[in-house]
Amino acid sequence: MNTTSAMSTPLVMLVDDEVSFVEIMTKRLKKRDLEVITAFSGKEALETLAEHHNVDVVILDVKMPGMDGIETLKKMKVAHPLIEVIMLTAHATVESAIEGMRFGAFDYLMKPCAMEELMGKVHEATRKKRNHDEKIQEAHIKEILAKRGF
Amino acid sequence: MTKDNHLTDHYLRSLNRNIILIIIIVSVIPLILVSGTIYYQFRASYHEKVYDHLRELVQSHSQNIDSYLQEKLSDIRFLTDSCGREKLTDESFLQERLAVLQKDFGKDFVDLGVINAHGEQIAYAGPFKLGKADYSGSEWFRKSIQSEYFISDVFLGLRGVPHFIIAVRNNRGGISWILRATIDFVAFTSLVENIRLGQTGFAFILNNKGKLQTTPMARPSMDMIDSKNIYEEFVTKQQISRGKICIATRSDSSRHKNIYVAASIKNGDWLLVYQQRIADAFADLRKTFIITTALMFMGLLGIIIMAFTLSKTIVERVAKADLEKQMMSKKVVESGRLASVGELASGVAHEINNPIAIMVEESGWIGDLMEEEEFEKSENRAEIERAVEKIQYHGNRCKEITSKLLSFARKTDTTVHDVNIKELLEELVALSSQRAKYGMVEIETDFQQNLPSLRASTSEFQQVFFNLINNAIDAMHHDGGTLTISSRQRENYLVISVSDTGEGIPEANLDRIFDPFFTTKPVGKGTGLGLSICYGIIEKMGGKLEVESTVGKGTTFLISLPFQPDSDRQQ
Question: Choosing among A23, A31, A91, which should be mutated to test the B contact, i.e. which has the most B CBs within 10 A?
Fold first, then answer.
């Protein structure tokens, strides 16, 4: 992983049961130089995440059939504590989005959202995530060097 | 009015009738029984008392008369025995004796006469010129000569005035002679005349042929004394005897019922009779009866008035409670309906949000694509960008609408909490603005800044204002108009007015607009419950809902709600 590159393309996973929404958002995000992978349910998102360890930010719809956004978030944070999640919600579920913040979501946005705002949040979240990664990596290196007697 | 209400009216009428009947029956029967029994007992004892009194009266007077006659007889006897025939035939001596008697007894003794065995009067002292009168043919002489003494009935005799005689026979020396004294009729009658009670009570004496021996001075007419029948009644029917007092009641010739009390006097020769009209004898009883009856009727009237008033009050309370119950259940239904509408709205708003988001994103995608080089020189580029912008703008409008709808839907609970009046009113105005626009109604608001919050149920508050705003818009549906909503704090009250410039409410309907089921809207358009529910809610919150209206000018609904007092707030 390129630890120094704040400039490198953020990898975003978009999770929503609404296929058309996922498709168009994917196009728009990609057009803004993001790498995008998609999932159409909470379960699929967790599975996909297991394969792609380098996902920076997850954009997660709160209201989904089956496992909902909050449930998905909780499990995601257990498996990948460093991953940043932006909750995407309709007005009725603002409360649940706020609840999501308590479980470690980075922020929440209301649907339909302004693209610039979303992009801003994605970059912010990516930066935060990569900062964390970097610090952890530094700690690892220090640990290894110490073991080798440097 | 519904069929249910007709049934209720019928039920209330019969309830009213039953309560009245029960109160009247339960109160009147004991009243009549008690009054009747008391009156009956009183009447019986009063009768007894009156009869006893009359019996005593007649008895004492009969004894009086008997002793009067006995006394006079003794005087004459004494005179006969003490003076002897020679002295008494001396008229001057006789005159002297008469004077002595008159001195002792007043004018009771009228005259004295000495009659020989042949009925010739041999000496006379008195005011009449009866000198040598011959009594041999008269009945009293025949009876006197046969017995030791004799007291006659009242008769006119030779002198032509009513009188009676006390005659004493003397046989001393083998020669029979009689000393006769005439007793003044007026003096004797006065003995009987004294017996007077009430208006019609008087007494008289009958002889053994049923003839009157006294003339009652106060009598209305002699016809009143049915002497023959009275005599028959007591002597023949009741077998009156000495010392016995008999009572009878019978009608006289003028059909008045009379009470008769009789005693036998003069050794059964005469009958002392006391007569009084029953109505007079029992006048006090009658008075008591009238007073009792009047009191009873007043009591009855009181009971009836009380029954009607009480029943009216009870029925009114029942009706009010019933109405409140009805309104309550309607309110429950209404709030239940509102809650389900809220749920539906929430579902719809949420479902619609996704397609809107997709549309906005798609238009955003078009916008993104338009930025590419190949479209840069396209002649319609500006137009496409404008269209994209419009789609985005209206997409956001949709988002706002659904967000308001959702915020409304979340507030359908009736729990009480602090409500920000200004925010709530603004929200309601925003939600009503579309409807107002279609009705060509302009909404003007004038909300006081920094109003304190009010403790209330948001959904109930919404319900009240939705109803008022919708009514106002309906009232202006013909030509449009202005709906003004203002809120002010006046002392401890929040005053909110909702005014329209619509057609106004006729005065005849003004009193009824808060009545449940009262509506002027066409069938199927209005339930007639809106305002009555508003009224109920505001009243429950301790406030007042008032209405002012001028036909042709508009209507203003004025709501005053108390802010919670500070003391409560601290608690």
Answer: A91
Q: Are B113 and B177 in contact (CB under 8 A)?
A: no
User: Are residues B508 and B524 in contact, defined by beta-carbon separation less than 8 angstroms?
Assistant: no
**CA separation, residue B123 to residues B173, B179, B501 (Å):** 19, 9, 133
Residue A15 has pLDDT above 80, yes or no: yes
Judged by CB atoms closer than 8 Å, whether chains meet at B354 and A90 is answered as: yes
Q: Is B110 helix (H, G, I), strand (E, B) or coil?
A: strand
Nearest alpha carbon to residue A71 among A90, A91, A92, A45: A45
Number of alpha carbons in the 13 Å side-chain half-sphere of residue A71: 11
The per-residue pLDDT for B309 is: 93
Question: pLDDT per residue over A45-61, tens digit each?
Answer: 999 999 988 899 999 99
Peptide bond into A10 cis (omega under 30): no
Q: Is the predicted pLDDT of residue B119 greater than 80, yes or no?
A: yes
Nearest CA in chain A to B398: A112
Rg (CA), chain B: 58
Q: Which domains does chain A have, with CATH numbers?
A: 11-147 (3.40.50.2300)
Indicate the pLDDT class of residue B396, thresholds 50, 70 and 90: confident
Q: pTM here?
A: 0.50
Closest C-alpha to B258, from B247, B244, B270, B246:
B247
- Residue A51 C-alpha, separation from nearest chain B C-alpha, in angstroms: 28
As for the ipTM of the complex, it is 0.80
Spell out which residues of chain A touch residue B361, defining contact as CB-CB under 8 Å. 21, 24-25, 28, 112
Residue A28 distance to chain B (closest CA, Å):
6
Query: pLDDT per residue over B375-387, tens digit each?
Result: 877 788 888 889 9
- Residue given tokens 């005799």 in the structure block: B157
Neighbouring-strand partners of residue A84:
A57
Band of pLDDT at residue B223, cut at 50, 70 and 90: low
Mark yes or no for CB contact A91/B402 under 8 Å.
yes
Tell me how far apart the alpha carbons of residues B206 and A20 are, in angstroms, rounded to a whole number: 139
Whether B411 shows a pLDDT value over 70: the answer reads: no
Single-letter code of the amino acid located at B262 = A
- For residues B540 and B557, what is the distance between their CA atoms, to the nearest angstrom? 17
Domains and CATH numbers, chain B: 3-186 (3.30.450.20), 195-281 (3.30.450.20), 415-570 (3.30.565.10)
Task: Yes or no: say if B560 and B495 are a contact pair by the CB < 8 Å rule.
Answer: yes
